[in-house]
Predict the 3D structure of the following.
Amino acid sequence: MFDVMVSVSVSLVLLGLMIPGFGVMMQAVELDAAGQEIAAELGLARMRAAAKMTTSRVTLDPADCSVRREVWDPELEVYQLEGAVSYLPEGAGFELSSPLRITFNSRGIAVDDAGVPVSSSVTLSDGSYHLTLLVSSSGEIKTQRSSG
């Protein structure tokens, strides 16, 4: 009987030590998932621009932590929202002071408003964990993770 009580006590102590780390790990997993979703939106915007022979863009807005994918409609001469607007998990945000638009031309190349190839990056953070998405001028998307 004493052996069972010792085993249960040790198990409870170990469980108590692991619980705080579990919360931090879950935040990192949620931020990773949000980063993967943004990378997927960027990849889809790039493919849609090439497939429709037009431009497509993804807007990352730090004000409401939203992500919007839009495709240029040449008939209406406006960008049209494509798909649903997504949001970062609660407690996470973009390390941006103003909205960032990443635009892809009809060849899938990331460009600025003048059509010049450009690289972009955006960092998502929950305060302790950071995930940076890098978009090269060729449209390649990479992620970098860091903590602290």
Observations:
- The first helix runs from residue 2 to 52.
- Helices lie at 2-52.
- The chain has a mean pLDDT of 86.
- Residues 73 and 79 are 6 Å apart (CA to CA).
